Amino acid sequence: MSSELPSSVLELRGVRRIFRQATAELVVLNGIDLVLRSGEIVALVGPSGAGKSTMLHIAGLLERPDGGAVLIDGQDCARLNDERRTLLRRSEIGFVYQFHHLLPEFSALENVMLPQMIAAVPRWQAREKAARLLGRVGLAPRAGHRPARLSGGEQQRVAIARALANDPRILLGDEPTGNLDHATGESVLETLLDLVRDTGLSALIATHNLDLARRLDRIVALTDGRLRTLA
Ligand SMILES: Nc1ncnc2c1ncn2[C@@H]1O[C@H](COP(=O)(O)OP(=O)(O)OP(=O)(O)O)[C@@H](O)[C@H]1O
Ligand SMILES: [Mg+2]
C-alpha cells in the first residue's frame, strides 16, 4: 500500500523579504517554509502588517524574495528569467484580491475572456469558457454587465471566474471576501471553495476572518516574520 502524500504544488523554502528604509531594515519574512500540496486549501492568518500580502506576492511570482526559494511543481523559480516567470504565473496561478480589479470599460464576460486572450486562446473558445465560468459562479444573467453595474459580491464572483480562466493549479487569495458584508462574504466563499474543490486546485487564502480560516484544510499563522501551523 502506498501512503505517499499528494505532491507539493507550491513550496516556499526559507523565504526572506527585507524592506530597506532610510534608517532601518524591516525584515518582513524571516525564513518562511511552506508546502502546499495538491488539492489542499490553506488559510494564511496574521495581524495587519505581518507580511501576508508580501508572502502571497512572492508565492505568486510577482516579487522575488531576498533569500530562499519558491518552487512550483518542484521547479525552482529563482532560476527563471522574468519572461519565464510571467508565463508560469499566467498558466499556473490565479489571484483574487480584496478589491476586484476588474477593468471598468469591459463587461463581466470580457473581463473573464481577457486573461485567455493574453494567453492566445482563440476568441470563440475564450468566450465559451468565460460564459461557462460565469455560470459556475452564478452570474450567467449578468455576463453583459460592466463592473459598475454589479454588486460587490457579484464583482468578486467575476474576479474568481477570471482567476480560474486559464485553469491554474494554484489559487492565491488576498482577503478575497474582506470587502464584503458577512452574508455576502459567506456566499462568495462557498462558491470559491466549491470551485476550488471541484477543480482539484490548491489554494492559499489570506484572511482576517477566523471563522473562514477554520473551514479550510489547515491554518498557518504569520507573526514576527515566521510561519507556524495552528493546531
Ligand atoms: N514596497 C514596500 N516597501 C516598504 N515596506 C513595505 C512594502 N510593502 C510592504 N511593506 C511593509 O511590509 C509589512 C508587511 O506588509 P503586508 O502588506 O505584506 O502586510 P499584510 O499582512 O498583508 O497586512 P494587511 O493584513 O493589513 O493586509 C508592512 O509593515 C508594510 O508597511
Ligand atoms: Mg495584506
Question: What can you see in these coordinates?
Answer:
With 231 residues, the protein is of the alpha/beta class. The protein has one domain (40-64, 82-230): Rossmann fold (3-Layer(aba) Sandwich), CATH 3.40.50.300. 34% of the residues lie in helices and 28% in strands. It has 7 helices and 10 strands. The protein has helices at residues 52-59, 82-92, 108-118, 123-136, 152-163, 182-199, 210-214; strands at 8-20, 25-37, 41-45, 67-72, 75-76, 93-96, 170-174, 202-206, 218-223, 226-230. It has a 6-stranded mixed sheet. A 4-stranded antiparallel sheet has the order 2-1-4-5, with helices on one face. A hairpin with a 4-residue loop joins strand 1 (8-20) and strand 2. The protein is globular. The two termini are 28 Å apart. Bound molecules: adenosine-5'-triphosphate and magnesium ion. Adenosine-5'-triphosphate binds at residues 19, 26, 28, 46, 48-54.
